[in-house]
Design brief:
The chain is an alpha+beta fold and about 550 residues long. It has helices spanning about 1-10, 40-45, 85, 95-105, 155-170, 205-220, 250-260, 275-280, 295-305, 310-320, 325-340, 405-425, 445-450, 465-475, 500-510, 520-535, 545-550, and strands at about 20, 30-40, 55, 60-70, 110-115, 130, 140-145, 170-175, 180, 190-195, 195-200, 220-225, 230, 235-240, 245-250, 345-350, 360-365, 375-385, 385-395, 435-440, 480-485, 515.
Length: about 550
Amino acid sequence: MLDELANHEEIFQSYGPPIQREPGMKATPTRFLFSKKVVSLEERQQDKRSKAYKPMLLSTDYERFRARLLYVNNQFTSEQSSWEELFAPVVDKTSVRIFLTVCAMFQKHVIHLDVVSAYLHANLTGPARYITLWGDEKNVVRQLFKAVNGIDNAAQIWNKHYNKFMLAEGFVRSSRDNCLYIHPDSSVQSSLYVDDILASADPDKKEELDRFVKKVQKEFIVRILGEPKKFLGMEITYLREQRICCVSQQAYIEKLAHTFLLEPVHARTTPVEANVYDKLRMAQDEPDFEGPYRSIVGGLLFIFVCTRMDIGFAVSLLTQNLAKPKPTHFLLAKRVLAYLVGTKSFGLILGGQPSSDLSAFVDASFANDQLDRKSMGGYIVFLGNSPCSWSAKKHRGIVALSSTETEIVQVTEGLKEVLWMQPLLIDIGFPDITSTTVMHEDNQPASQVLLKGPTHSARTKHMDVRVKFCGEVLAQKNRVLLKYIPSKWNFADIFTKPLHTVRFRDLRSIMVHDLTGIINNSQFLQRTFSVLTDFVQSPFKSPSSSMEQTALY
């Protein structure tokens, strides 16, 4: 707490001296918010003057005790702002995976910076604000000058301040992600998530990265954390010489299991059972569940979005019952968590040899929900051999009348994601990405409809807008190539239906890998990366046979 007050008073000068409160003056109360955070030894060494650290038993990490001065908004002292006045962008997680993939491919130098008390670097604008501070006398207030935590638009004020600094240094914002910056001359690229900065530079331009870090240090108070090890709840192992970046969430999975699995459970081989729809149908007659269902599903959703696409179908089912969950739904969520505990060492392997190939796989399962007969769809997009974007969602607002229509709906969703990714990849150094983009799907009638556009047919004329959108994109030369692939080799099949163990493991082996003991085995990693390449070149070769050969190394 003393460290926090020192930051406000001595370093940032967040508020003015105490003054007497005048009649009619509105003042907002403040309070301290206490929390703990596990940090590495390197981060501890960056903050030697602080005494708010405690070494952890049987570990080289430290526990940092944090106290944040919180501006307490209330209806009597704060004016409500519109959404447009509060919005502040953060880097998309897909952009983070693309960023790490490109860094690993080209053996770039990467550094992680943490801005200390980021919001306090930005000055408040607008009418003067007054606060009452802990420890001050009664009827004494202070004028607030900085965007402290709790102010409704503090994040936006900080983001604008950082953006102004980056533009002044010659950086350009990505056309697709406002928190991804590219310097056109120095090869330095940077991403921002609130107060966490990742920056990279080409192997022969490390001095440019060092120069950027010095400029950031001059403008802000930062901790230099070296190569990224933890970022947004993800554990990162960056092996520059091997062109590898491993990303997992083992610590977060263990934390979630400690909260919700209060007794030992058996490891599961799949996230959901093959007869899960029968259980969901029978659960409709159960009473509502009053426990922490939303909390556990929120944790599972975060894991799915960051690193574990193999639980996508299960998470999609669970999120459909947030309003009125049943006891069966909570048991299904615990089963997914038990599966994650048994595979907590699994994660993404990004990087590999430089490649500008963008390969998308889309799939949909027609009317598989027995309750409302809506379809389930999903897609996954690879940059080279690295999975960078994925989705598993139930088709909302539409009940498809045929498997062809279901597939067209999903191809539309996949195309929208690819069209978003292409300009982003052009920004970070892949100018020819549009000529190497292939989308795979497993429905031949849908391919014929999209490529030839027969919307006059009674079966397809109600889909005219989607068909016209896809047809226009696919008709453009060197934009996206739509390619038919047998269902057996469609990787997106894992997102659309409950699978038996053998089929599930077949598809999972392409997406996530057991990182235990293989991080230092470059031969295994390189062989793992060749699986997707071999498959794309020879689509009728089983990916599982390739993985069996991989296991021999």
